[in-house]
From TrEMBL:
PROSITE patterns from the UniProt entry: ADH_SHORT (PS00061)
TM annotation in the entry: none
A Pfam family assignment: adh_short_C2
Alphabetical list of Gene3D superfamilies matching this protein: NAD(P)-binding Rossmann-like Domain (3.40.50.720)
Protein name: NAD-dependent epimerase/dehydratase family protein
InterPro entries associated with the record: KR_dom (IPR057326), NAD(P)-bd_dom_sf (IPR036291), Sc_DH/Rdtase_CS (IPR020904), SDR (IPR050259), SDR_fam (IPR002347)
Organism of derivation: Myxococcus xanthus (strain DK1622)
Domain Ketoreductase stretches: 6-168
Similarity comment: Belongs to the short-chain dehydrogenases/reductases (SDR) family.
GO BP annotations listed: monocarboxylic acid metabolic process
Length: 253
């Protein structure tokens, strides 16, 4: 890949990691298709990121809508980078995890990345190559209690990453996965609130408990994850594919 401006697709771009990734690529001079459900949040992103941001409101759990979005993107030229970031979680014991909860988590966390890869990767390869970066989780490489649906989805995303990396290795499209630990996002805020409600501890104490799970004793920022994505999309990462990058403050040692 060249160092010139690239067209980038980012899902879940309206907040958290996705927003930081979209802004990071836009500030680096790349055109960004920013996909998310909220038109209002996408407009806020566009105002911050400027003309490089191209908002596209879509629910990635809606297969027909996602395919239509892919066709719209391809109509203006194949992207060079795809960042599958959109993700949701369900926190509940196995016995209280409903089938519909599992279906929704898998639709957003696994099926949507699969569909986008299926729709966009052939065009990327035909255009000379590209980068696919999947945003996973530490739950992609280990078990976490009370998150069976989420863990299953992230393990599946890791498998998808490895399979597509091998399939497209000679087509100049790399596929890697970034596995963050706890990151300053709405999901993290929800976790601290849930811990506080269930244990009686303050949210600050809950935050400290989660931070203490990694060696650095701190929470990762969305901008740090975005920086890793920018590296994986760069020329310097041209020989890297099928890899899982942990950004977890040393949580796994």
């Amino acid at each position: 890949m060249t160092t010139t401006s690239k067209t980038v697709v980012v899902t879940g771009a309206s907040r958290g990691i996705g927003r930081a990734v979209a802004l990071g690529f836009a500030k680096a001079g790349h055109d960004v298709w920013a996909l998310a459900r909220s038109t209002e949040a996408l407009e806020s992103l566009r105002q911050e990121g400027g003309e490089r941001i191209r908002p596209l409101a879509v629910d990635v759990a809606d297969e027909a809508a996602l395919i239509a979005a892919s066709q719209r993107i391809l109509a203006e030229g194949p992207p060079r980078v795809l960042v599958n970031n959109a993700g949701i979680t369900v926190s509940a014991p196995l016995a209280k995890t409903r089938t519909e909860d599992l279906a929704r988590v898998m639709a957003v966390n696994v099926t949507a990345p699969f569909l986008l890869c299926r729709e966009l990767m052939p065009a990327m390869a035909q255009a000379g190559g590209g980068r696919v970066i999947n945003i996973g989780s530490m739950a992609a490489v280990r078990g976490v209690k009370y998150t069976s649906a989420y863990c299953a989805s992230k393990h599946a995303l890791l498998g998808l990453t490895r399979a597509l990396a091998v399939e497209y290795a000679k087509k100049q499209v790399t596929v890697n996965i970034v596995n963050p630990g706890w990151v300053e996002t709405d999901m993290f805020a929800g976790a601290t609130s849930a811990i506080s409600a269930s244990t009686g501890r303050s949210e600050e104490q809950a935050r400290e408990a989660l931070a203490s799970m990694n060696a650095m004793g701190r929470i990762i920022t969305p901008e740090e994850v975005a920086a890793l994505c920018l590296f994986l999309a760069s020329d310097a990462a041209g020989g890297i594919t099928g890899s899982a990058y942990a950004i977890d403050g040393g949580e796994l040692g």
